[in-house]
Amino acid sequence: MDPESGLSVKRDRSTLGEIILKSGSVMLGYLKDPIATNKCMKENKWFYTGDVDIMHADGYLEIKNRSKDIIINGDENLNIIEVESVLYAHPTINETVVVARPNEY
């Protein structure tokens, strides 16, 4: 679903959404931690996993990343895994890791 609007994302293999769950076997919250519980369990009692995904037309769900692994740069959201993939493709790079840090921009 789109975490902003609460609506299902398009099944177009490009629109990012968040996986949310609700069932009898999903936790009710974090023990003695109401702040963490309120972050992942919204008012509708669905568990927001923090996993960023895309949907395919046939209903296939493809997990792309964790929302905590997204770099917000102005109006752009950069996927750390995609940045690392581009770096790995360069012939002179053997290992890489991308770490975000806050800045004024």
TrEMBL record:
It comes from the Eukaryota. SUPFAM superfamilies: Acetyl-CoA synthetase-like. Transmembrane segments: none annotated. The keyword Ligase applies. Keywords: Ligase. Belongs to the ATP-dependent AMP-binding enzyme family. This is AMP-dependent synthetase/ligase domain-containing protein.
